[in-house]
């Protein structure tokens, strides 16, 4: 075999995947205690951290691990559960917003203390402050390259749109 299997590129992707899978397993168990799936948590967090607690459906799809049709199905289910609602877009009849409801914010309030404890224990707490700073910078660089829509509709891009 002519390919060097000890190539650092394999190691980097492998370690990233193993870390992600391990963290996801720990987080998923805690979300389920609060009757949420990982993707529902992701949707609630994205909406709660967005201006006016809302995002256009297309922007929400760009910021999550969901396709446009996938985000529609999740938002519809979460709407039935009272965690989010849809709002029509006044400037574009073809668009709508997903908006986190008070019940969705309360569910986040229930989940977040335990989630943050897990994040601290298994992720942030494993790093020095300098390692964390470097990791965040690196992850943003990679995210921006592979998913340039990841901040669509967020405070970063909303400010640019207003200008």
UniProtKB/TrEMBL annotation:
Top-level taxon of the source organism: Bacteria
Location of the HTH marR-type domain: 1-144
One Pfam family named in its UniProt record: MarR
InterPro entries to which the protein is assigned, alphabetical: HTH_MarR-typ, MarR/SlyA-like, WH-like_DNA-bd_sf, WH_DNA-bd_sf
Protein name: MarR family winged helix-turn-helix transcriptional regulator
